[in-house]
């Protein structure tokens, strides 16, 4: 069986006409990218420029300079199985960070905090707030005290 990546016409068609990336072609052929690059060089297939690459990826949901636009189509997407740290990172990249704490109105470094009253972690930006460390500590202390009171009351 002939290996497709060793066929100059097929390789050229995949890369230039079908706008497949080197990584996509390598994955399709079951080889590593460096092997594919060897055959590109051997056949004299030129590489696309960056602006052509942006156009090639635009049909897949990419936007220039925005690798985060894939979301669910990303191979590493965990959905509801994402860890808490990953959810904080996801929301933190998308939620605007204020210059001051909204609770104490002091210009301090603020951190992302989850609204514990809701119970489970989500990707919803409204479930998170930016507050300073001091307010975060006070808030958590209050939330855990309420949970303790509720637990003791049900005994």
Q: What is the structure about, briefly put?
A:
The protein has 155 residues and is mainly α. It contains 6 helices and 2 strands; from the N terminus they run αααααββα. Helices cover 45% and strands 6% of the residues.
Walk me through the structure.
With 155 residues, the chain is mostly helical. The chain has 2 domains: 70 residues, no CATH class; 75 residues, no CATH class. Helix content is 45%, strand content 6%. It has a two-stranded antiparallel ribbon with strand order 1-2. Helix 2 packs across helix 3. It starts with 7 loop residues before the first helix and ends with a helix.
Strand content: 5-15%
Task: Give me the secondary-structure category.
Answer: mainly alpha
In N-to-C order, the SSE pattern is HHHHHEEH
Low-confidence stretches: 61-69
Q: What kind of assembly state do the chains in view correspond to? A: single chain
Largest sheet: 2 strands, antiparallel
Strand order of the largest sheet: 1-2
Q: Helix tally? A: 6
Estimate the mean pLDDT confidence: 75
Number of domains: 2
* End-to-end distance: 72 Å
Rg (C-alpha, Å):
25 Å
Roughly what percent helix?
A: 40-55%
Give me some keywords for this one.
155 residues, mainly alpha, 2 domains, two-stranded antiparallel sheet, 6 helices
Helix-strand blueprint:
Layout: H1 8-17, H2 22-29, H3 33-43, H4 50-58, H5 84-94, E1 110-114, E2 128-132, H6 133-153
Antiparallel strand pairs: 1-2
Helix pairs in contact: 2-3
């Amino acid at each position: 069986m002939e290996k497709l990546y060793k066929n100059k016409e097929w390789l050229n068609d995949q890369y230039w006409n079908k706008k497949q990336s080197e990584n996509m072609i390598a994955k399709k052929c079951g080889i590593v990218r460096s092997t594919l690059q060897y055959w590109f060089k051997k056949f004299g297939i030129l590489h696309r420029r960056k602006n052509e690459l942006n156009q090639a990826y635009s049909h897949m949901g990419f936007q220039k300079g925005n690798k985060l636009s894939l979301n669910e189509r990303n191979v590493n997407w965990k959905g509801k199985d994402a860890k808490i740290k990953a959810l904080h990172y996801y929301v933190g990249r998308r939620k605007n960070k204020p210059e001051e704490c909204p609770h104490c109105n002091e210009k301090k470094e603020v951190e992302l905090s989850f609204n514990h009253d809701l119970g489970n972690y989500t990707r919803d930006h409204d479930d998170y707030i930016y507050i300073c460390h001091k307010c975060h500590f006070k808030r958590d202390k209050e939330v855990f005290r309420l949970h303790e009171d509720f637990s003791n009351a049900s005994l």
